[in-house]
Amino acid sequence: MLAFKNIKKSFGPKQVLNDVSFDVKAGECFFIIGASGVGKSVLIKHLVGLLACDSGEIWLDGEEISRFDEQQMGPVRKKCAMVFQHATLFDSMTCAENVALPLRKHKDMNAKDALAEAKKRLAVVHMQAFADRYPPELGDGMRKRVAIARALTVDPTYVLFDEPTTSLDPVSARRVDTLIRELCDKLGVTSIVVSHDLSSIFSIADRIVMLYKGKVLKIGTPAEFKATDNGIIQQFINGRAEGPMDL
Amino acid sequence: MTEAVRNPRLHALGAASIELAEIVGGMGVLLARILVRIHKFDGEELVKNLYKMAVKSLPIVAVTALFTGAIMVIQAAVIVKRFNAEGLLGWGAGFGTLREIAPLLTALMISGRVGANNTAELGTMVVTEQIDALRVLAIDPIAFLIVPRFIAILATLVMMTLFADALALFGAAYTGQGLLGVEPMTFFNGLTGGLLDFGDVFNGLFKSFVFAFVMALASCHFGLATKGGAPGVGRAVNASVVASAAGIFVLDYLVSFLG
Amino acid sequence: MSATTETHPDPSPPDASEGVEAELGFVGSIGAAFLDIAVAARELYSVFVRTLYYVFRGKRVKGAVLHQMNEIGVKSVAFICITMGFIGMILVYQSGLQAKRVVPDFTMLGATYLELLVRDFAASIGALMLATRVGAGIAAEIGSMVVTEQVDALRMSAADPIDYLVVPRFLASLVMTLALIVIAGTVAFCSGAATAYVFFDVRPDIFFNMQLVDVGDFLTGFTKCMAYGAAIPIVSSWCGLSTFGGSEGVGWATTRAVVNSSLAIIILNFFISAAGFLIFPG
Questions:
Q1: Structurally, how many domains does chain C consist of?
Q2: Which of A35, B67, B180, C78 measures 20 to 30 Å from B247, CA to CA?
């Protein structure tokens, strides 16, 4: 169970998040949507302690974590894995070494066992053939899958995805979607996905929150979003250039 | 900032002082964070960095040292000819090489090769969010990245200085033969004839340790403080080599007077 | 001078090159290294020749050289003064100690120091410092322009990047290196004189002794200034222009600029010193 309560965050004079509150239920695939620059990524970075909010509370499984320091954040980060927008693998390590690193650090494995286990985990995301390649040699979609494998090594209960399908070709994008859905269905992981990819939103989301101008515009299921008569939401989910939305 | 600056020169001076204090303070904080975690270094990263920093620098250190030894002999040659004292060539070139020039030039070359590269790598990791990725995986970036690099730079520079000492004397001896007709044996006799001892070598090595210390701190500090994409990485590397060079000269002075 | 330039610009992971070594064997990898050096030498030569061509034929943007003179020269003054001030103190202190062991006579300390300074140290150590500050700066700036495709934009508007970017830096560096090295020598001499007075009781008027400085020393020193002043911008611009691949590439280019400029200085120093010694012996 995860809850954001009255989160406020500004960068200098720019108020990015202004009183954002919502809950995420265990095991669901929860989407955060909104126009570019509305603060979606900023919001999920609060959860893993990469940013600190100006005011508000973040409750994770009965703990208020928004004021945790780097040390206290450790267990939280093992519970909440994050997949970055650009995959952000370590360039100087092979894919297998990337996945092996958290295994070596957190599961007390030696280098050899960790590499063997990493290759197994790469097989889960169908990347075993590229285990010994370096990330810059791979395409965006492949890197993203390796990043997902790496995020799952710590056996998280929550996985945060920052725009997982942006900059991917449509086929790779749908494969990543399938992978995210499988995490929820097979492993019972709670996925929190930041996205503005309409096909992802309406194919795998259980529930959606839409942010607009630093506030929550609407929370609901995909069906409820489609049925709404709010002009801004309709403009967004139909991808129209003209409409009531201010950018 | 909105208020008009009354005295722009004074303002610039103040800004520069604050910036300097910020850099020194940042390096101090970084040092404290490194020392707290010094026992928790990652062995694999250490070996990787030692290979990348030390082994890969061998050619450039070798070239620098050979030429430096040769130049030292050419500079000493004028004096040797003037006093017609060939026996002193080894001592004349050796003293300066071991105590001053070899540690200094090796440090400057390693600062360019290793220090700058280290800043570039860390800077790239910062701007591409790789440091954040480490933190999100609950891995401490200081213990995992910085501590092994810090140790590796210290070890690299001291080893490279010793290597450069040997090669520089070698280059000096044979330049002496080619240019002045002084036999290498005469050169080495002049070296070991009692005017030089291991104290001079240790003095040089101690210096290189101190240089490595400031270089390691500066390169890690500027790397981690990188902001603003590709141009930011370039600026960070530039700042890092300049700070290392200035630090090296100032510390050289202090160590020379203490030792 | 480019025979030893470091030619591994490849920002790809370290193991990629080892794979090549494994395939080629030891001899093959040495051959590959020489090929790399040959390619680098040719590129460097081409940048140099094109720069010289545009110095005489290019269309100069007004104020570009002045701007670079400010960037390269004026902004390096403080850095040069600090480092050369300290090195002056160290050199005199060390050579004083050295002289004490043989002849406890300091009357010639200043003369010898001044001679060394004019012939070598002012130019060479000063230039090494400039390679660090100016070389890194040039490579970082040009490298960033390459990866953000500004250099391509220049090409598209029919401006040769060499004419537009390298020539102003080259001209500014030629002038400013000479000026900075004169400053560097002066600062090093003054700090040396102060050290001699404090530690060895040598009065400044005795320390300032031009007796040993002759035309040969001046010519050698001057040649070095010119050679270094030309080498630093050419080598660094070449490193900057051959940047590829994002922020990592810019970092690599900057690193290579510092290392290769420093190497160029050390190697040029060797040849000019040897030539100076042979032409003006004693």
A1: 1
A2: B67
* Chain C residues inside the 8 Å CB shell of A91: 13, 248
B10, part of any domain: no
Does the interface predicted TM-score (ipTM) exceed 0.95? no
The answer to whether position B1 is within a domain reads no
> What is the distance between the alpha carbons of residues C118 and C140, in angstroms, rounded to a whole number?
32
Q: Which of B77, B79, B112 sits opposite C258 (nearest CB)?
A: B112
Residue B25 located in a structural domain: no
**Which residues of chain A have a CB within 8 Å of the CB of C16?**
134
Is residue A132 in a domain? Answer: yes
The count of structural domains within chain B is: 1
Q: Does the CB of A134 have a partner CB in chain C at under 8 Å?
A: yes
Chain position carrying tokens 């005017």: B195
> CA angle at residue A205 from A202 to A206, to 5 degrees?
125
pLDDT level of residue C159 (50, 70, 90 thresholds) = confident
Query: Roughly how many angstroms between the first and final C-alpha of chain B, as a whole number?
Result: 47
**Confidence band of B87 (pLDDT split at 50, 70, 90):** confident
Residue A61 pLDDT > 60, yes or no? yes
Q: Which domain holds residue A141?
A: 2-238
Tokens of C245: 């691949």
Is pLDDT above 70 for B4?
Answer: no
Q: Is the per-residue pLDDT at C107 higher than 50?
A: yes
CA atoms within 13 A on the CB side of C48: 14
Mutate to test the interface with B, among C250, C273, C277 (most CBs of B within 10 A): C250
- Collect all residues of chain C within an 8 Å Cβ-Cβ radius of residue A94: 13
Question: Chain A within 8 Å of B121 (Cβ-Cβ)?
Answer: yes
Taking the Cβ of residue B245 and every Cβ of chain C, the question of whether any pair is shorter than 8 Å is answered with yes
Contacts of A74 in chain B (CB under 8 A): 138
Q: Is residue C64 part of a domain?
A: yes
At residue B3, the pLDDT reads: 54
Residue span of the structural domain in which C200 resides: 47-279
The pLDDT of residue C13: 43
Interchain CB distance below 8 Å, C90 and B253: yes
CA distances from C80 to C72, C90, C124, C172, C251 (A): 11, 15, 12, 17, 24
A88 close contact with B: CB closer than 8 A: yes
Nearest to C194 by CA among C84, C86, C89, C96: C89
Asked if residue C172 belongs to a domain, the reply is yes
Cβ pair A86:B124 closer than 8 A: no
Closest CA relative to residue B205, chosen from B240, B136, B156: B156
Contact A134 C14 (CB under 8 A): no
Distance CA C160, CA C151 (A): 9
C243, part of any domain: yes
Look up the CATH number of the domain holding residue A71.
Answer: 3.40.50.300
> Given a cut of 70, is residue B178 above it in pLDDT?
yes
Is residue A246 included in any domain, yes or no? Answer: no
pLDDT, tens digit, for every residue of C187-197? Answer: 999 999 999 99
Tokens standing for C244? 């590829």
d(CA A134, nearest CA chain C) in Å: 7
